Amino acid sequence: MNQANISEILFPHHHQELQRVVDGGINFAHYTNADTAFKIIKNQEIWLRNISVMNDYREFEHGKEFLAKLIKESEEGKALKQAFDNIAPKIFETTFSNFENWAPYIKDDFYISCFSEYEGKNSDDIGKLSMWRAYGGNSGVAIIFKYDFFKVLDMTHLDFSSVVYFKQSQLKQEIANLTKSVSSSINVIQKLPPNELSNYLFNIFRFSALCNKHKGFEEEKEWRLIATASILPETKHITQEIETIQGTPQNIVKIKLSEVDFEGKKFNDMIEKVIIGPCQHPFVTKESIIFALKSIGIEEPEKIINVSDIPLRLNH
Prior knowledge:
alpha+beta; 10-stranded mixed beta sheet; 13 helices; 10 strands; elongated
């Protein structure tokens, strides 16, 4: 059975968002501090941090509680349960119970890397003030990856998902859309073994909790690369190492992309530009990033670096 077809049925919103990115040629910005940006570029890696140390980790509780309330109390939630029960009786109730039992451990098991949709086309692009405040610290750098970067990430067998900023009415509508998609494809879904269907359903709950943030964060237009530490794929491209970020030693899941080749494209082909954000030493930082870009084979890196003049008071 084609897993891509099953995924389109069970994750309709996700596939619509991926298609929007492709159709619009929307790039992805990774905002971080200069030290981390230098290491990411020079070592050709993507870093994923445990959600408990992320700036907005409380939003995971928001997503989980938001979902649970609608599943249990709304007509849309009851209809979704019935749609799955028509395929495999009790599978919805059992899987959701397993999800709720697992949820308290979410902070220990999940690592993410955050990206923001980036549609800037001008050479004087300065980045988003809110993102510099949230992720840049006193030495912000944004690495802009080309829109098809997610296809390279797909080769790592991790999950890459858009974040939604739904009000209750919007999440109800998405639940209704999923119910419609499932009900119209029963003949396909019922061919799945029960344990496989349960895994898909569990992931529906998981992503709803991990990728639904408060409406106040909507301008971030965030996407997340997600790794589950307890079930990381066994591959030479994924390691776990201790790094110190902003004074805190912590475990990092690293996606090593130096040897990954996707349709003739490598890591250095995926970098569209780099923005040096508000920092104490912007031009020293720029020279260091130029060195890192040259070290991975990017010619004339000066042409893809911009120093942002966005006003932001730094904590010295």
